[in-house]
Amino acid sequence: MKRSSNQSNEWWEEKTSMLHAGHSPRVKVFLRSLAPPMGTCQQQNEALEQLQSFERQGLLDSVDVTVWGKSICPDSAAAQTEPGTRILDYVDEFTAWGARTGSSTELPFEEQRVSSSILDEQYQKIVLPQVCFGVYTSDQLELVLPCEIDGESYGVEDFIRIVEQQSPVEREIGTSA
């Protein structure tokens, strides 16, 4: 069942209400690279600067940055290393979150089968997004961005805009907690 735009907006309001309730969430930021390609470099830098500013203001409890690369092959030896298992654990956690939404959820992970007839080789890989946020309150994953819920897209910019829109009273509550 597809939600109406109003229902999708209600879902978004519910997910971001933690900010208006005086909670200072933790944001885990996942990046493909610390030197992103043209076209995304400025966007990535601005997002990180804004999140760090929110953290200094007490609007966010913490901001953690992880570089997870462009893709990962789940069946590879690299995936069995500590960084590889950590990346796959986050992908699993984010996928489980998507399943819990009770809606049609699209996450920014693309599974691809790669094959080469010349090398007679094939493997599966998961393509990771350029920038991804995991937003947590306490130890609970509340939001994964970017995502699409029932046809409505929500990006990292939407989360930043919501944090920016906190009233001065809500900001004081966030810093006094």
Automatic annotation (TrEMBL):
Origin: domain of life: Archaea
A Pfam family it matches: HTH_63
Protein name as annotated: HTH domain-containing protein
Provenance organism: Halorientalis brevis
